[in-house]
Design goal:
This protein has about 170 residues and is mainly β. The chain is built from two helices and twelve strands; from the N terminus they run E-E-E-E-E-H-E-H-E-E-E-E-E-E.
C-alpha cells in the first residue's frame, strides 16, 4: 500500500498496558467510525506496514485504545510509539453537500459568483491560521481563504467549486 492511496488517521501517543496495548490520538471529528477496524497501516521507517487489530475501543473521546496481534509486551508497544496511522482512502466516509476532503477537490475549477472562472485548485494550504485554496490562474497564484461563508456550492460531478469572495480579493492578485 502506498501512502498516496491512504489517509492519515492519527498517531500512537503512548503505551496503555504492560500487555502491548497502545493509545492512538485520532485526527477525526467522528472517532467512533474507527472503533472496529480489522487492520491499520503503521508508518515504520517510511514504509506502511499492516498491523492486525485484536481489539480496540474508544478511550476518552478522541483516543483509541488498540491491541495489535503480535504486539504483546511493553517493549513491542514502545517500538511503535509515535507511529502514524493510515487507512485506505476507500474507507473514508463519503461526504455530501459542501463538505469535502482536501484531497478530493484538488484539480477542481474554482468559480467566483461575481468574478467568473478563477482557475484550477492546485492544493490547500492548511499550515496557516486559516486554510487557503491555492489556485493557479494561467501561472498566477491566487489565494482564497477556505471560509464556509465563501463556499457556495461544491459540484463533484462537474468538478467545480462556486465561491463568493469579498469584492476586490481576486483582483489583488491580477
Amino acid at each position: 500500500m502506498k501512502k498516496e492511496d491512504c489517509f492519515y488517521l492519527g498517531k500512537i501517543v503512548k503505551k496503555y498496558s504492560f500487555k502491548g496495548e497502545v493509545l492512538a490520538k485520532l485526527d477525526t471529528d467522528e472517532p467512533d467510525l474507527y472503533e472496529n477496524l480489522d487492520a491499520i497501516f503503521l508508518e515504520l521507517r517510511n514504509n506502511l506496514v499492516p498491523f492486525f487489530v485484536e481489539r480496540s475501543q474508544l478511550h476518552k473521546s478522541t483516543l483509541l485504545r488498540l491491541k495489535f496481534e503480535d504486539v504483546d509486551t511493553e517493549a513491542d508497544a514502545e517500538a511503535i510509539i509515535k507511529s502514524s496511522l493510515y487507512l485506505p482512502l476507500d474507507l473514508l466516509p463519503k461526504l455530501e453537500g459542501n463538505k469535502f476532503y482536501f484531497h478530493e477537490v484538488i484539480g477542481f475549477t474554482i468559480t467566483d459568483k461575481n468574478f467568473g472562472d478563477v482557475g484550477i485548485l492546485k492544493t490547500i494550504n492548511d499550515t496557516t491560521a486559516q486554510a487557503l485554496f491555492e489556485i493557479d490562474r494561467n501561472g498566477t497564484e491566487i489565494l482564497i481563504p477556505m471560509n464556509d461563508e465563501f463556499i457556495l456550492k461544491v459540484n463533484r460531478e462537474h468538478k467545480t467549486i462556486l465561491v463568493e469572495t469579498p469584492e476586490g480579493l481576486i483582483d489583488l492578485y491580477l
